[in-house]
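pls ignore typos typing on phone
2-acetamido-2-deoxy-beta-D-glucopyranose + seq
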Amino acid sequence: MKSSRLSRQTAAFILVLFSQCVSGKDCMCELNTLQPPFPMEKFNSIQTAAGQCTKSITSTQFEEVSVLMVGVQERLEHLEKSVSVLEKEDDGDLYSAVSVRIIELELAEILELMGKMNKTIRSHMQISQSTATKLQSMTDSMQELEAFDLSHVVNKQRENQRIKQELVECQHELQATHPPPTPRPRHCPQGQLVNVTGPRTYSLTSYGTSYPYGAWGKDPKPAPGKEDTYWLVALTTSSVYANYVRHYSSLSTMLVGVGAEDSTISYANPTTNSIEGPNVVQYGGALYYNCYNSPSVCRFNISDHSITNTPLPENTGYSNKFSFGHLGALYHHTDLDFATDESGVWVVYSTIENFGNVILSVVIEGSPPSLGRTWNTSLYKRSATNTFMVCGVLYATRFLDKQTEEIFYSFDTETGEERYDLKIRIKKMQTNIQSLNYNPRDRMLYAYSDAYIVSYSTVFQ
Ligand SMILES: *[C@@H]1O[C@H](CO)[C@@H](O)[C@H](O)[C@H]1NC(C)=O
Ligand SMILES: *[C@@H]1O[C@H](CO)[C@@H](O)[C@H](O)[C@H]1NC(C)=O
Ligand SMILES: *[C@@H]1O[C@H](CO)[C@@H](O)[C@H](O)[C@H]1NC(C)=O
Ligand SMILES: *[C@@H]1O[C@H](CO)[C@@H](O)[C@H](O)[C@H]1NC(C)=O
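k done
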C-alpha cells in the first residue's frame, strides 16, 4: 500500500481556500472542504489489515505442502518396490518377517506424512477463508475511500497498470515466436556424468575382512609430494567408530598392505572428536568427518594433528537418526556424508524440519571450517544408499540387487533441478557399499564395500 502519499495529494485537491481581507492590516483565511474530511483512520486500519494478510500468507507455507507431496510420492514408490520384493521372497522364512516389519515402518511413516499434510492443508484452508473475508471487507472500504478520489488519481493509476500489463503480455507473445534461448554452458569442463565403468581396482585391505565399514581414496588437493598417497579409514570399534587414518605412499603398497603410516586423531576410541560413521573424505591435507556423538563437522589436520570443528544446524540427525539404507540393510551411523568435487568439500545430512530429506551444504575450508550455502532437497535420505558430488551436482545411489547399485538421483546446485530418473549402473563386487566418493583430480569413484576397497572410472559426455 503505497497510496498514503497519494491520499494526501488527493486530500489537497478537495481543499478549497477562502481568504478575505478584513481590514488593511489583518488578513483572515477560512479553510473549508467541500467534502467530509478524508477518513485517515479508516485508511490506516486497511493498511494494517493488508500488512497482516501479507504476513499470514507466505510462499514458504505453500512450499511446505509441495515438499510434503514430493516426500509422500517418493515413499510410496519406495513402498511399492518393497512390497514387490516381499512378494518375490514370500517363502515363509524369517527374511519375509523382517521385510514385513520394514514395510510396516514405511507405511507408518507415510501415514505420519499424510497426517502432517492433512494438518497443513487444513490450516491453509482456514487461512484462505479468513483472508478472503478480510479481503472482501478491505475491498468494500477501499471503494468507499475512492469516493474521495475526486481527481481520479487512483482510477488513472489503475488504468495505467492495466495498460502496462497488456504491454508485458504483448511483449511475451512477441518473444514466444523466437526460438528459446540455448542453455548456458555449464561450468563443468568435462560435461555431464553419463556412466560409471569398472571396477578398476578391487582388493581387501591389510585389515582383511575384519572391518566392513570404512572409506578410502586420494586427496584431490594433495600437499606437494603427496600426490600418489592413498588414505584409508576403517571403523575399528563396533564398525561405527575410528580414531586414526592410515596412509600408503602408492596404490601398490596399499594393495599389498605394506608401509602403512597411521595418524592418530585421539587415543581413545570413541571419544570427543574421534570419527563416527564411514563417510569420511580427505581434502587439502585434512580429514573431514562426523565428530563422535555430535551433529558437527570435524576436521583433522594431518600435518599438525590439530582438530577444529563446526556445528550443523539445530535438529540435524546424528548417531543413526537419518542414516542411508535400503530394504535389506541400514548403513548405520551414516547420518553425515562428506563429499569432494571440483569446488571443494560438501556435507550431506538431514534434519527433522526437512522430514528426513537430504540437505546439502558447502564446507568452507577456513580455520575453523564453516558452512556455506545450503540447499534442501526432496530426496528421502533413507531411500538412498550413498551420495557423492561431481561439478556441483549431487548424485545419489540406491540398491538394485546384490550385483548392482544405481545412480538414480541428481540435484544440480546451479539450477536447483532435481531428477529421479537417472539410470547409471554400478557393478558391485560385494553386496553393500558403505561409502562412495568422487575424486575430481583423477575422476574416479572410490568405494568401500563390505571390507573391500573398490574404484571405478567415470564417463562424461
Ligand atoms: C484429515 O483430517 C480430517 C479431519 O480431522 C479427517 O477426517 C481425515 O480422516 C484426515 N485424513 C487423513 C488422511 O489423515
Ligand atoms: C556404461 O558402461 C558399461 C560398461 O562399460 C556398458 O556396458 C554400458 O553400455 C554403458 N552404458 C551407457 C549408457 O553408455
Ligand atoms: C594444517 O596445519 C599446517 C601446519 O600448522 C598448516 O600450514 C595448514 O594450513 C593446516 N591445514 C588446514 C587445512 O588447516
Ligand atoms: C530448508 O527448509 C527449512 C525447513 O523448512 C527452512 O527453515 C530453511 O530455510 C530451508 N533452507 C533453504 C536453503 O531453503
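The pocket of 2-acetamido-2-deoxy-beta-D-glucopyranose (ligand 4) is lined by residues 353-354, 374-376 (CB under 6 Å). The chain is about 30% helix and 35% strand. more later
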